[in-house]
Amino acid sequence: MAHPTQLGFQDAASPVMHELLHFHDHALMIVFLIITLVLYIIVAMVTTKLTNKYILDSQEIEIVWTVLPAVILILIALPSLRILYLMDEINDPHLTIKAMGHQWYWSYEYTDYESLGFDSYMVPTQDLTPGQFRLLETDHRMVIPMESPIRVLVSAEDVLHSWAVPSLGVKMDAVPGRLNQTAFIASRPGVFYGQCSEICGANHSFMPIVVEAVPLAHFENWSSLMLEDA
């Protein structure tokens, strides 16, 4: 959950998000070193009155400043490609959920069950209870078992939407007439908030996503109660 004046990412709640945070730190350190080097060169050239003829025309320096950027790009590209493949990897999901975007709410269907599905609307400000977050709380949460591979099929009924939960490292476009899929594993119990990340009309800001990760036994109890009420 993000908090005011926060500068970094939210705490990771999935293995993929942990990898993304590590890659962010890796890339940021490389950028920091480049900025430091360039700033030093600029300051040195502006402040010194000396001229080195070997720097003005040097084959060796041209080779260095051609090869060095290529090496840096490789150091950034290889871990980036690894994470991209990890994000697309879907192996034997324990649960499949279909998330449909509407103007302006989400509907969820647990496809492994015969009749388990519901709509998820934002809780209006005047109906919030103490401890709930404005513009982020929903009347029905998407409940999942923790430490289990979850596959989410994402689509939309009307316009473009985007199903995104930052703590889980998940963001997938919901396109009408197209079924996209993504997967994640919640590594710890908790409530994770997200929002539609594609401008989808007047109430784009009012269709939040709430994912609640619980132990498997609690999930089975919840699904049994939902099926009884259906």
UniProtKB/TrEMBL annotation:
<comment type="function">
    <text>Component of the cytochrome c oxidase, the last enzyme in the mitochondrial electron transport chain which drives oxidative phosphorylation. The respiratory chain contains 3 multisubunit complexes succinate dehydrogenase (complex II, CII), ubiquinol-cytochrome c oxidoreductase (cytochrome b-c1 complex, complex III, CIII) and cytochrome c oxidase (complex IV, CIV), that cooperate to transfer electrons derived from NADH and succinate to molecular oxygen, creating an electrochemical gradient over the inner membrane that drives transmembrane transport and the ATP synthase.</text>
</comment>
<feature type="transmembrane region" description="Helical">
    <location>
        <begin position="63"/>
        <end position="85"/>
    </location>
</feature>
<feature type="transmembrane region" description="Helical">
    <location>
        <begin position="27"/>
        <end position="51"/>
    </location>
</feature>
<keyword id="KW-0249">Electron transport</keyword>
<dbReference type="InterPro" id="IPR001505">
    <property type="entry name" value="Copper_CuA"/>
</dbReference>
<dbReference type="Pfam" id="PF02790">
    <property type="entry name" value="COX2_TM"/>
</dbReference>
<dbReference type="InterPro" id="IPR002429">
    <property type="entry name" value="CcO_II-like_C"/>
</dbReference>
<dbReference type="InterPro" id="IPR034210">
    <property type="entry name" value="CcO_II_C"/>
</dbReference>
<feature type="domain" description="Cytochrome oxidase subunit II transmembrane region profile">
    <location>
        <begin position="1"/>
        <end position="91"/>
    </location>
</feature>
<keyword id="KW-0479">Metal-binding</keyword>
<dbReference type="InterPro" id="IPR011759">
    <property type="entry name" value="Cyt_c_oxidase_su2_TM_dom"/>
</dbReference>
<feature type="domain" description="Cytochrome oxidase subunit II copper A binding">
    <location>
        <begin position="92"/>
        <end position="225"/>
    </location>
</feature>
<keyword id="KW-0186">Copper</keyword>
<dbReference type="Pfam" id="PF00116">
    <property type="entry name" value="COX2"/>
</dbReference>
<dbReference type="InterPro" id="IPR045187">
    <property type="entry name" value="CcO_II"/>
</dbReference>
<dbReference type="GO" id="GO:0042773">
    <property type="term" value="P:ATP synthesis coupled electron transport"/>
</dbReference>
<dbReference type="GO" id="GO:0005507">
    <property type="term" value="F:copper ion binding"/>
</dbReference>
<keyword id="KW-0813">Transport</keyword>
<protein>
    <recommendedName>
        <fullName>Cytochrome c oxidase subunit 2</fullName>
    </recommendedName>
</protein>
<keyword id="KW-0679">Respiratory chain</keyword>
<dbReference type="GO" id="GO:0004129">
    <property type="term" value="F:cytochrome-c oxidase activity"/>
</dbReference>
<keyword id="KW-1278">Translocase</keyword>
<dbReference type="InterPro" id="IPR008972">
    <property type="entry name" value="Cupredoxin"/>
</dbReference>
<dbReference type="InterPro" id="IPR036257">
    <property type="entry name" value="Cyt_c_oxidase_su2_TM_sf"/>
</dbReference>
<keyword id="KW-0999">Mitochondrion inner membrane</keyword>
<keyword id="KW-0460">Magnesium</keyword>
<comment type="similarity">
    <text>Belongs to the cytochrome c oxidase subunit 2 family.</text>
</comment>
<keyword id="KW-0812">Transmembrane</keyword>
<dbReference type="GO" id="GO:0005743">
    <property type="term" value="C:mitochondrial inner membrane"/>
</dbReference>
<keyword id="KW-0472">Membrane</keyword>
<dbReference type="InterPro" id="IPR014222">
    <property type="entry name" value="Cyt_c_oxidase_su2"/>
</dbReference>
<keyword id="KW-0496">Mitochondrion</keyword>
<dbReference type="GO" id="GO:0016491">
    <property type="term" value="F:oxidoreductase activity"/>
</dbReference>
<keyword id="KW-1133">Transmembrane helix</keyword>
